[in-house]
């Protein structure tokens, strides 16, 4: 399975809100790609379409050339951190992962590997309902990594992490991309992305405004934040 994400001409309307209006981009493996834009620009909807949670009105979204719905064991192809509150509160973190692993024909030993990798070796035995947001993010990363997938889709992975957690997440994302994976990270934290992203996709009003190498943007602007603010000036946010 190849580490690619392709989004082509996605359109999605929720009542009067046009969430996606021709969203089109491609992501290759080997680097972190930042997915940025104002509130309501369509980032989460794009990630939800990519993982089969929302159905587009038009267009296609594929992982390694295939639609999510056609993947027999999807967690082996794509890991997603979309909703840190998804695990059932009465299940322990470990049981949540065991249930996921079983559904994907993955060995229980892999659960303990990802718990150790995300710093939850001890906390994994406690009920997820008692987790802080940072711990939920770690559990979400553990779930995303369970199937050792070539593609990762992460919606605001830095949210709720303490400073040491932020450093840990930064290093982890760099390492995962260095292994050749395609790592798409939606975030409002331009300073974090400036440190770890090779590419950035800037969206507004449901479509791509700019797609560029971070290095190129840093030649033209003082920072990624300055580039972002210029590129999105006048785009507006919530509609
Ligand atoms: N389930 C839904 N029902 C109604 N409207 C929705 C739904 N999901 C998304 N929208 C609307 O679609 C648009 C895009 O929302 P989306 O969450 O994709 O934006 P976003 O770029 O992820 O924003 P943020 O940065 O705030 O997370 C918004 O106008 C939002 O209100």
Automatic annotation (TrEMBL):
SMART domains: AAA
Record-level Gene Ontology MF annotations: ATP binding
Keyword entries, A-Z: ATP-binding, Nucleotide-binding, Transport
The keyword Nucleotide-binding is annotated on this UniProt entry: yes
Domain of life of the organism encoding this protein: Bacteria
Domain ABC transporter: 5-230
Protein name per UniProt: ATP-binding cassette domain-containing protein
Organism in which the protein naturally occurs: Actinoplanes oblitus
């Amino acid at each position: 399975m190849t580490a690619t994400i392709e989004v082509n001409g996605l359109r999605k309307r929720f009542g009067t809100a046009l969430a996606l209006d021709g969203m089109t981009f491609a992501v290759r493996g080997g680097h972190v790609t930042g997915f940025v834009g104002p509130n309501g620009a369509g980032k989460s909807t794009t990630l939800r379409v990519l993982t089969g949670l929302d159905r587009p009105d038009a267009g296609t979204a594929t992982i390694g050339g295939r639609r999510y719905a056609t993947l027999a064991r999807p967690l082996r192809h794509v890991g997603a951190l979309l909703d840190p509150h998804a695990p059932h509160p009465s299940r322990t973190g470990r049981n949540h992962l065991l249930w996921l692993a079983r559904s994907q024909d993955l060995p229980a030993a892999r659960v303990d590997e990802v718990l150790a990798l995300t710093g939850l070796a001890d906390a994994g035995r406690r009920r997820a309902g008692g987790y802080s947001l940072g711990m939920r993010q770690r559990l979400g990363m553990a779930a995303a990594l369970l199937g050792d997938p070539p593609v990762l889709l992460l919606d605001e992975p830095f949210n709720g992490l303490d400073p040491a957690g932020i450093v840990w997440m930064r290093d982890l994302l760099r390492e995962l991309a260095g292994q050749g994976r395609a790592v798409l990270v939606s975030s409002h934290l331009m300073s974090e992305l400036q440190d770890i992203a090779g590419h950035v996709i800037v969206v507004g009003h449901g479509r791509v405004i700019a797609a560029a190498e971070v290095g190129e943007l840093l030649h033209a602007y003082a920072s990624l934040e300055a580039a972002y603010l210029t590129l999105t000036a006048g785009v507006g946010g919530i509609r």
